[in-house]
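ok posting inputs for the FE(4)-NI(1)-S(4) cluster job
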Amino acid sequence: MEKKKVDVLEQMQNMTIDLNSKALIEKAEKDGVETMYKRKLGYKVQCGFGLQGVCCRNCGMGPCRISPKTPRGLCGADEHTIVGRNYARMCAGGTAAHSDHARDITHTLGLTTPGGAYQVAEPEKLKEFAQFMGVDPEGKDIYELAHEVSEVCLMEFGKPHGVSKLLARAPKVRQDIWKEYGIEPRAIDREIATVMHSTHIGCCADIDALVHMAFRCSMADGWAGSMIGTMLSDILFGTPKPVHTEANLNVLDGNNVNIILHGHEPTLSEMIVLASELPEMQDLAKEVGADGITLSGICCTGNELTMRHGIKIAGDFHQQELAIITGAVEAMIVDVQCIFPALAEVATHYHTKFITTSPKAQITGSTYMEFHEETALEDAKTIVREAILNFKNRDASKVMVPELKSEAMVGYAEEAIVGQLNNVVNTQIDDMNTLKPLIDVLASGVIRGVVGVVGCNNARTPSNYNHLTIMKELIKNDYLVVTTGCGASAAAKNGLMLKENAAKYAGKGLATVCQLVDIPPVIHLGSCVDNSRILNICSLVANALDMDIADLPVAGCAPEWMSEKAIAIGTYVVGSGIETFLGVMPPVTGSSRAVEILCGSIKDKVGACFHVNEDAEALAQDIMACIEAKRPHFEELYQEKVLNKRVSGELACLY
Ligand code: XCC
Ligand code: SF4
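and the output
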C-alpha cells in the first residue's frame, strides 16, 4: 500500500484498542467500506459552539450562537440559558428513550397468558412488586395479577397526580432530600413534556431552574422508567443468574447461520431466541447447508441476552459496522436505540440482511419487518426464517472472522450479588438475603469502595481505552467494579469478568474476596436500564445501615459516554447522592454557571456532583481520592449506627 493509505489506516486503527476491531478496520479499507472510524477522520475539527453547548436552534429566528461578539441570541437568551436548555433537553431525550422502552415492557406484561409467547417467569417477584405498587396479590391468579400490575405501572407514565411510587425504595433521608429540592418526579411523560415546554422559546431562562427540571426529569428515568423496565423484564423473562459467556467478534460461528441482535428491548430478542430454538428452524438451517444457528448480541440487547441465556456478546456500540464487515453475518436484527443508520450502507457490501423491526426506528435501506408483541412468536419466526434463507448468499471469499474472544461470567442481578456473597462468606446465617458480608468487607476496608463504571463508547476517545484503563486501575486498588451497557462488553471482551483473573488484575483485598465469594472483580449487572439495579443495591445497603446513599463509599463513572441516555443516567445518579465521574466533557462548558452548578454547588442540594477529567488515568485517581475522602465519615457512621448498637444488643440479627 502507498504511504498515504497506510497513514490513514493507522490513524483509524489508533481510534480503538480492540485488536479484532483493528483487523476489521483494515478489512473495511480493502473492501472499500466506510466506517465510523473513516468518517471520524473527516471531522478533524468539530463545531466549537456545539461542543460548548452554546448553539441554540429552538426557534426559527436562529440558529443563534454565543460568542464574544454575539453574547446573546436574537431573543436575548444568554449562554447560561442556552446551555441549560440544551442540557435539559438531553436529559429529556435520554429519559424518553429508557422510559419508552419500559413502556413497551409494561405493555408486554399486560399481554402475558399461560402457555403464551410471553409468560410470567417470576411469580414471586411479581407478587412482591405488586404489593409494593399497592396491588394486593392475595387470592389472585398470577396472570390476573400481571395484568393489573401492568395497568398500575402504565399509570406511572401518565398519572395526573402524585410522584413516582418507586421513590419509596430509597432511604427515607434521601426521599426527604428530593422533597426539599423538589425533584421527586411526577408522571414520567409529564417530566419529559415539562422540559420540552420550558425549553421552548420564551419560556424558562434561568440556569438554576433549568438544571432543577433536568434533574427532576432524569429522576423519572432512574426511579421510574428504568426501574420499571428492569423489574418487569425480570418478571417476564427471569431474574438473571451468573452464567458463562464469551465476548468479541470471534463468537461468530464459521458454518452456522449467524444472527446478531442489536438494540435494546428484550421483548423482541427473547422471541428471536425462542424462534431460533424451534426444531423447524434448526432443520431449516441444516437444509440450507449450515451446521446450526448462532445468535449473538450487540449493545444492550447483547447484555440482556447474555445475562439471561448466556448468549454470546458479539461486540459493543463501536463494533456494529465491523460485525457486518466480517462477511459472516446472515442477519443483523435491530429494534431501537444506538443503531448506526450506516448499517444499511455497510450491509450492501455483503450478503447481510439488515432487518429493522420497530416503527420507532425505521431506517432507509433496511429490510423492514415490523414486530408486534401481539403476534410475537410468528413475527420472530418470519424474521429468523429470512435470516436462515440468506445463508446461501454468503460469499466465502469475503469472510474474515477475527481471532479473539474472551470468556466471562455475567448476569449478577441484585439477588445474585447479595446471595453469592452471603452464600460463601456467611453460611451460618439462615437468612440468605442478609447484606452483612457485603457490608462487612466494605466497612472493614478490605474493599475500599464500589464503583459503577458504565455506558457507551465515544469516538472522542479510542474505543474501550477509558473503560479498561479505569476498571483496571480501580480493581488493582481494591475497588469492586460493577458495570452495565457497553462498558460491560468492554470488560467481558478483556477477561475482567473472570474469577480466574482476579488474582492477575485485582489488589490483594479484592482478589481475596473474589476468591472466597467466587465472583469476578468486575461484575456484570446488565444493560443500561439495569443501572436501576445499582440504585436498588445502594438503597438496600443504605437502608440496612440506616444511612443515606450519599454516605456510602461508592461512585459512578461513565468513561466514554456519548448518548442522551447516558446524560440522563449521570444526572439521576448524581441526584441519588452518588458522585459521578465523566471521561468526556458534556456540552456545557459555554456556561460558567452551568459548570459551577453541575460540578459544584448541586452538591449542596443532592449530596453529590459531576466530576470531569478527559485523562482516564487521572479520572481513576479522582474516583479513588473521592471515595477515600468519604471513608472516614462512613466508618464513623458505621461505628455509631451498627457496631455500637450491636454491642448494646439493640441490633438483634442482621443490621
Ligand atoms: Fe448505547 Fe445501551 Fe451507550 Fe451502549 S451503553 S452505546 S447508550 S447500548 Ni447503554
Ligand atoms: Fe435564537 Fe432565542 Fe430562537 Fe434560540 S430561542 S434560536 S437563542 S432567538
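notes: Residues 61 and 421 are 59 Å apart (CA to CA). The chain has four domains: 3-49, 88-237, 249-398, 408-654.
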